[in-house]
Amino acid sequence: MAKSKSKTGNYILLPVTETQTTADTNPKVKNFLTAVLEPAVSREAVSLKTRGPEKSAKKIPVKVIDSIQDNGAKLVQLSQEELADFRFSYPGLRIIKEKFYKKAQVYRESIQQKAKKTKTTKKLDLTVTDTDGNPVAGIYIVAFTDFESRTGDSGNTNAKGKLSLTLASKNIERIYVYPEHTYWGYYKTKFSATSLSIKLQKIDPGYTDSLRHFYDTPQWPKITQKLRVGIIDTGVGPHKDLVVSGGLNCVANEDPTDFKDNGEGHGTHVAGIVSAYGGVYGLAAGVEIYSYRVFPKEADASNFYIMKALAQAIQDECDIINMSLGESETDEGISSYIKQAYNAGILCFCANGNDDRGTVSFPANYSLSVAVSAMGRKNTFPKNTVQTGIVKSPYGTDKANFIADFSNIGAETDLTAPGVGIISTFPDDLYAIMDGTSMACPAAVGMAARLLAGNPEIMALPRASARADEMLKYLSTKIQSLGFGANYEGKGMLLEDK
Amino acid sequence: MANYILQYKGSGMPDPQVVKETLHICGVSIIDGSLLPHAALLDVSDGELENVRCKFEADWSLTPEKKYKVPDTKKRTKE
């Protein structure tokens, strides 16, 4: 291969729609894969001419490392600097950077291996109680001696509220305490100890969290117009503050009529942000909630279940769909149903993802989704709670506002909404604090529903893409920038007219 | 054996009976046929995969089932 000064990379070349060329593939692409690249596999680099005026034409050296089929994927090596030239000169191909995957390891095993390697001997004995001194069981705690490398130990408290962690040192860089419900969490940094007693503060449902700072939901009237919101999640309820009007359990081999929460509480928390009324107040109390359960208990959701949920939400004539879920890789099946929803006049709001300022997840990054990042506000959570560790720049025009440290960001972001220290419903009439773009997404959905309920002309439009277009256009007039910058907040936050 | 999603990419409505018969001929079992005739969740062995692709041709896609986790923001240790 001709020597190049710039770095080379390996890329996978694929036809646009399939893994192999088909009858619909551009004949030039087919010829390029089968007649130009295929014969060059494992040989010296081929020299490919760039497109453009003859004078400026140059040659791109490309080494074909491997091929899956004659008319299928090719693994090639070329200069990163020449990648753009290649892309414009040889269109009709998907160009995917070669990635390497680690062997999946069970979390507990990896911690044990780490413990052996570092010969950890220090113990940190923890006791967790409520403010009355009663032990609190089942609380997940993680302590780091080196946060950067994520070195530490974790576990759950026992019936006596006790947990012993094995660490490399007694110098703790950070400790996070995550109750599932009922209590605020706990966070402490840079201390040295072999034992620690932690008192958890109970949630007051009337506390002004970041959501209620921006939206005075306890004072808002119930929505009386008919508007239906679909929640694709772990299921919803039961909870005294929530009414679930319909739905479907989309998980294979489970009762289709059981669309209450699978016990993890995520979907119930999301639904409460939209429509709770009683102990806590959501943004759009009065709208119909439809629950589409796609998560089996303590297991992952199949993309097929999500497709099924979208199909059912379309059939049920939802107006807005909340998808507080995501993964890094795109999925054509889910995209096609989001497109179908849009063409049926339904908007899909999706969480940006929680990968510590990573790129916007799928399906939020799909062009027809409304992608929502998470922001927070200082002094809307008690001191020493987990939320104090989430504060990170950029700060807004109002310096108390910040984009959550966990929130994914990027050009696909459409909106931001409160997603730090949010109080909402948890199954069996409990309340919980949760953080995430999962919480910001229903905050945006709830506000969108409230605003759209005030515009019956748009909601009465025939169920087609023009309806979704008009819904978006109307909502865009209700968005205000908080000064974070488009990469972090998109156009800004949905707010009431002042 | 692995789960795959068969999805119709063409226009119009595919014939559900033809879809089911074709799957039967391929010896593939349907795990969830609630979205038929547009999509189905299938149990496909490595040996059957190419056969299913060939039988359904260009208007159909056959992609592996993917999994989505319940999102959270808990910090975790790692290797």
UniProtKB/TrEMBL annotation, chain A:
It comes from the Bacteria. The keyword Magnesium does not apply. Signal peptide: none annotated. SUPFAM superfamilies: Invasin/intimin cell-adhesion fragments, Subtilisin-like. The active site is at 233 (charge relay system), 266 (charge relay system), 438 (charge relay system). Pfam families: Peptidase_S8 (PF00082). The keyword Hydrolase applies. One of its GO terms (biological process) is proteolysis. PROSITE patterns: SUBTILASE (PS51892), SUBTILASE_HIS (PS00137), SUBTILASE_SER (PS00138). Residues 226-461 form the Peptidase S8/S53 domain. GO terms for molecular function: serine-type endopeptidase activity. InterPro entries: Ig-like_fold (IPR013783), Invasin/intimin_cell_adhesion (IPR008964), Peptidase_S8/S53_dom (IPR000209), Peptidase_S8/S53_dom_sf (IPR036852), Peptidase_S8_His-AS (IPR022398), Peptidase_S8_Ser-AS (IPR023828), Peptidase_S8_subtilisin-like (IPR050131), Peptidase_S8_subtilisin-rel (IPR015500). Keywords: Hydrolase, Protease, Serine protease. PANTHER family: CEREVISIN-RELATED, PEPTIDASE S8. Belongs to the peptidase S8 family. This is Peptidase S8/S53 subtilisin kexin sedolisin. It comes from Chitinophaga silvisoli.
